[in-house]
Design a protein that fits this description.
alpha+beta; 2,3-Dihydroxybiphenyl 1,2-Dioxygenase, domain 1; 8 strands
């Protein structure tokens, strides 16, 4: 994480996405130590709809079948992905002391603006953690915010 900028780049670039370019939160992904307990919490306690069968994104079918991922839909359509990480433990058991239990936050952008998002990241010297990647579900790029929380900007396939 040493590649993360801690101050504004010397050029203090004014290049940025226009307000409103990021359309919505596409999904939120959480690492969980106990998938059974977490599925019960999100599905039974919170009453969220668990994606099953053809609702599961094609790229996640095998991971869902293996019990490594579960997906839930909130009433507004945001997807919550649970990633089974049994050996991952938080640096502090008190969730008020840190936020590392989350995997990443993903923002949707129009396919025609994806390239501009990459230019903005480069112009602001934001280190890319992964990508850009292309999948059947679209394109995405992963990077860190100044505190080390992973962010994704993704778009649907450009048909």
């Amino acid at each position: 994480m040493s590649d993360r900028p801690t101050t504004l780049p010397q050029s203090e670039s004014t290049l940025g996405l226009n307000e409103g370019s990021l359309k919505a939160v596409h999904h939120i992904a959480f690492n969980v130590q106990n998938m059974k307990v977490s599925k019960h919490f999100y599905g039974q306690i919170l009453g969220l709809h668990e994606l099953t069968g053809s609702e599961v994104p094609e790229t996640l079918v095998n991971l869902v079948a293996a019990g490594k991922v579960s997906n839930f839909r909130t009433p507004d359509g945001t997807i919550i992905d649970l990633f089974y990480e049994p050996d991952l433990s938080a640096p502090n058991d008190d969730p008020d002391q840190q936020f590392t239990r989350a995997n990443h936050l993903a923002f949707d952008i129009a396919p025609e603006q994806f390239g501009q998002a990459l230019e903005v990241l480069a112009a602001n010297q934001i280190a890319i953690a992964q990508g850009p990647v292309t999948r059947p579900t679209g394109r995405g790029v992963y990077f860190y915010d100044p505190d080390g929380f992973m962010i994704e900007i993704r778009c649907d396939p450009d048909f």
